[in-house]
Amino acid sequence: MRRFERLRPSRLLACVLFTLVAVPAAVRADDIAAFYTGRTITFVSGSSPGASYDVHSRLVARHLGGFISGKPTIVVQNMPGAGSKAAANHLYAAAARDGSVIGMFGRGVYLDAVFGIEGTRFDPLKFGWIGSHGRETSALVAGIDTPFKTFADVQKSEMLAGTPPPGSDVHSFGMMLNAHTGTKLKLISGYPGLAAVALAIDRGEVQGVPGPSIASLMALRPQWLTEPGKARFLVQLGTSPHATLLQGVPMVHQFARSDTDRKALDLMLARLEIAYPLTVPPEVPPARLAALRTAFAGMVKSEEFLTDARKLHAEISPSSGERVRELIALAYAAPKDVIARAKSAFEQ
């Protein structure tokens, strides 16, 4: 009792505050471990098996569980459809909201909500964004045996451009280029994926492709990027030039037809900064979302993850969940005329 009485008031207050802060933190950590131990997390991937988002979903699924307290198993469930909007709608309206379901869907799907596209049944600002492990640069590519040598050539003459179905980035970027830079791309969208489009270019069935990511091309056609005379890169699409490749290839913004078109390009291309957004449904308990964000931050720095990513030619440049949400909020905050101009590309 005497020792207690000799404590100075300031020291006594410090002890009380430490107890109030430290004990709940320890309890929260124990709660996370108790919830995830022995549990299987369902990872909803908004693409078909073997497609880009599926490959990246499985990359994350192989590593993330080891960084979550309790070390849960993670199992990927493919849910393609409507350009991966089916997966977004499911996560928002039907998936469990307890941290046992996570998902990755198309990087640009949030724009369907911004534009008010029919069939969009989610509010992207209400998702619990965990983060994105990469950002990307895309490009307009022409086959080497075609008359298209510069971007101006595509503004003057029609190019047969192969794309995956509507809703994919490549198809959307083709419509964007036509609307905002005056290209004459005739979009042939009957191909199931980018691999089929690349094969069609090799066979001369189509003349180019509007907007494959550099990472995808490194996986499918690395020779196009590394060997002279295999393909022509006419313009870069992105928020900044590619760090190591496409030297001397112009950025698309310089070809915008007006200042509003330039801002519409910014709105459309911001998605490339958050190339592979990982999320949980709305209303997941904050402590569990925080634990998943912490696990993600640890995963993207781990040598095991980085080594695995290099095998897939994945370029790792992480963004936090807070940054993902910030970019989506910026899209909503864009001037109405810019949103209307960007949306008009898909109404032609």
CATH C-level class of the largest domain is Alpha Beta
Which H/E pattern describes the elements?
HHEHEHEHEEHEHEHEHHEHEHHEHH
Q: What is the subunit organization of this protein? A: single chain
- Within CATH, the superfamily of the largest domain carries the name Bordetella uptake gene, domain 1
Outline: globular
- Mean pLDDT across residues: 90
Gyration radius, in Å: 23 Å
Poorly predicted runs are 1-7, 19-27
Number of self-contained structural domains: 3
Let me know the number of strands. Answer: 11
CATH architecture term of the largest domain: 3-Layer(aba) Sandwich
Report helical residue fraction: 40-55%
Could you give a short account of the major beta sheet?
6 strands, mixed
CATH topology of the largest domain: D-Maltodextrin-Binding Protein, domain 2
What attributes characterize this protein structure?
348 residues, alpha/beta, D-Maltodextrin-Binding Protein, domain 2, six-stranded mixed sheet, three-stranded antiparallel sheet, 15 helices, disordered N terminus
